[in-house]
Amino acid sequence: MSFTLRSVKVPPNSVNLEEARSRVFDFFRSACRSIPSIIDIYNLDEVVTKSQLRSTIAAEIRKNCHVTNPKVIDMLLFKGMEELNNILEHAKQRHHMIGQYVVGHHGLVQDLDSKDQGLSDFLKNFYKSNYF
Amino acid sequence: MGLGLLASRAIRPFNSSSSSRLLLRTIVSKPELQSPESSAAAADACPEPDLPPRTPLAGARVHFPNPEDAIEVFVDGYPVKIPKGMTVLQACEVAGVDIPRFCYHSRLSIAGNCRMCLVEVEKSPKPVASCAMPALPGMKIKTDTPVAKKAREGVMEFLLMNHPLDCPICDQGGECDLQDQSMAFGSDRGRFTEMKRSVVDKNLGPLVKTVMTRCIQCTRCVRFASEVAGVQDLGMLGRGSGEEIGTYVEKLMTSELSGNVIDICPVGALTSKPFAFKARNWELKGTESIDVTDAVGSNIRIDSRGPEVMRILPRLNESLCTNQEFNKASDRLIKLGLRPNNIFLPETYPTALFYLELRLPALAFLEPSGPSILFISFFTCLSLFIPVIATSVDINEEWISDKTRFCYDGLKRQRLNDPMIRGADGRFKAVSWRDALAIVAEVAHQVKPEEIVGIAGKLSDAESMMALKDFLNKMGSNNIWCEGTGTQPNADLRSGYIMNTSINGLEKADVFLLVGTQPRVEAAMVNARIRKTVRANNAKVGYVGPETDFNYDCQHLGTGPNTLLEIAEGRHPFVSAISNAKNPVIIVGAGLFEREDKDAIFSVVETIAKKGNVVRPDWNGLNVLLLNAAQAAALDLGLVPESSNSIESAKFVYLMGADDLNLDKLPKDAFVVYQGHHGDHGVYRANVILPASAFSEKEGTYENTEGCSQQTLPAVPTVGDARDDWKIIRALSEVAGVRLPYDTVGGIRSRMRTVAPNLLHVDEREPATLGHSLKPEVTQKVNPAPFKSAVENFYMTDSITRASKIMAQCSATLRKK
Ligand code: SF4
Ligand code: FES
Hints:
The complex is a heterodimer. By secondary structure, chain A is mainly α. Chain A has helices at 3-7, 17-33, 35-42, 50-62, 70-88, 94-102, 121-128. In chain A, helix 2 (17-33) packs parallel to helix 5 (70-88). Chain A starts with a helix and ends with a helix. The two termini of chain B are 54 Å apart. Chain A binds chain B through residues 111, 113, 119-123, 126-127, 130-131, and chain B through 432-434, 693, 717-718, 722-724, 727, 730-731, 734-735, 739, 743. Bound molecules: iron/sulfur cluster and FE2/S2 (inorganic) cluster. FE2/S2 (inorganic) cluster (FES) is lined by residues 101-104, 112-117, 129, 131 of chain B. Chain A: It is a peripheral membrane protein. Chain A: Keywords: Electron transport, Membrane, Mitochondrion, Mitochondrion inner membrane, Respiratory chain, Transport.
């Protein structure tokens, strides 16, 4: 865990879903606020725009939209905070950022094609790798 | 013995019970062994405990051909019934007692020279070497007495006296019999202070590395060379401590089975040269698979580390079965059994696995002491059993040919790892799968259906051949075949292209007629069987074909079809040998498939078979020996070209790993797609390359020459951007708009079931049902041109072996010119 966070005390658990929800929004806002400095630190301006990064963050959060247990939400928030801190502390390198948040989890070589629409799952998987 | 040692012995306090005679020969190191005789007497005094029945070792099973021949012996007090003629060591094995051994090997003759297998037999004055001693009725064998232990310890001490202690730099370390047995039976201290002897290393060629100082003179290698491999290269020189294993004069070991001496050498004296210092055996992951370099389908184990194949070894099927009766044994587990309350009920896999999943956490609570205890308690109370497949396939015994064993470095060279398209300048450019498939599909649609041709290569698995055939059929073409089967193969009668006698069945034969085949280079394991038969029953061998070198006694009858005609018409002296034989065998080489007059030759062979009574209801001795791994499955799946000159008019050629094809007649403007794993001959003419996985990287079904289907398993991941063969064709079919209806291996296998159900009966030999008599009359004339040899270079026959450096070295140094 990063050292700035170490000084901050871990906040107490959210009592209900409502509190957890507002914390998520707080986190989203603070993450959005740090986007300009992230772009600055990692020289991302030539590969990505602020709004793209914003939607990536939103998408990462929405991945867990089905979670209703406040404890779990707190845990996920904690992890998100940790990640954000690592990024701001330059604990990552540029290619990590590009790989994880700019290109996405599908890898760098994915050749997306508009023709992919009608394809069967088999063919989509086939283009990705031999193992499915 | 050093003086200091003697002195230390002299001042050691002695057990008061030891007699003065023992006092003089205190050569034991463990106190309890100091007076074995007296403590043996003490052991005898106490009553025999009720011994629980033991399970035979390594699944050893006895099969009584004749119930009267059974005798009973007692091993450590436990009675076992064994057939007459078994040795004491085998009796112990049946009783579940493992006897340490070095020189004894179940597939070689008995030498009895290492003395490690000493056991005590009641009423015999001295311990006996159990491997050489026949078991007699009522014999009382004791394997665990102080006398036996002391004997083993002594033998071990003598063996280690001249054995270098270089285990840390020895390739055998970790799988060494001497290492294991000295841990189990050796003394806990050494008394040796003198110099060890050293022996000059011998040069046995590019495959076998020798460190002869490590040799313990068990002579397994000598016996293997002269009995199985049929070369008299190795022998024992000198006497006493000057004894050495060697080749008399400086000479390489030129046998196609020489690699097996690496496996049978119990110590690190003979190890693999290409594998030397590459890996330790405990780092390796073993995958049981099938060899594809010839049509025998030898059972192999691929040892890999990470993404690399490190070595290939034969699989020891014997660990599961010792005789043919195994599959028929009544006590085999064939269904899942679940015991909810006291009786076993047959169950399905999902239920059983669900039950396991349910029970395991509960048991973990019950047994806080850890997983090992958990499993012991779980299985002793046995609530569930799951049957596993025990193979009774005994194709290659436990030997494999050098090509099988050492071709693996070819899997790392010359690999194709990206889809590529040949540009206008004639150079290949790497592209994405999407682009490559789009181009292939587009071209395939531009040509007429009858101009499309597909050829499966030697190493293709049945799944991909099925997919290729379905794909081309959907494109409207039926011009598809497997290389090596010729233009008009006879795929209708299964008995016309498989080995009907079966490889095991060859051992019953007493006369062999080999027609246009050289089993020694075409199928080394089949040749080893023929040699075994020749040695065991004095079988007679005659061959028609180019003069070659066999490693057993044989008669060269002639070089061409004329000799065959003479035999068929009864004008040849060999006719009497065939007609007098009880179980005659005719083996026709698949090299003849390429001849124009093959139908005529086959009908001549059938005439010989009919006259010699070779095919009877109880014996089918008419065999075809195929050349490559894909052939039998290809013919089963009906990969037969529609017209014999389709290559000349082809515009779109799909080569699925086909490299040994003559493409000279192909029109210049034809579009060639090469799907395969090696940049070999086929690539030179290709316009598009689709990289595929090799046999070590995929799961595929192969049928061997005797009609036994077996499966390979992936041992290592695929290279680069390669894909499994059938997946490429399935993907291509979708891009081309003729989507094949299967998405999984299971799906393609059920499609295969409708065409050739025998391909799904894995590890079972499916004999052909119909006889030869249903064939139509042949009108062809026999061409008197002599037979040619089908395999020019034993070491390099396919794309993998041609890419292998070791195989190149072998063909440079070992091949008989
Ligand atoms: S080389 Fe190996 S197999 Fe041959 S005699 Fe020596 S120890 Fe035995
Ligand atoms: S195994 Fe019996 S003497 Fe060697």
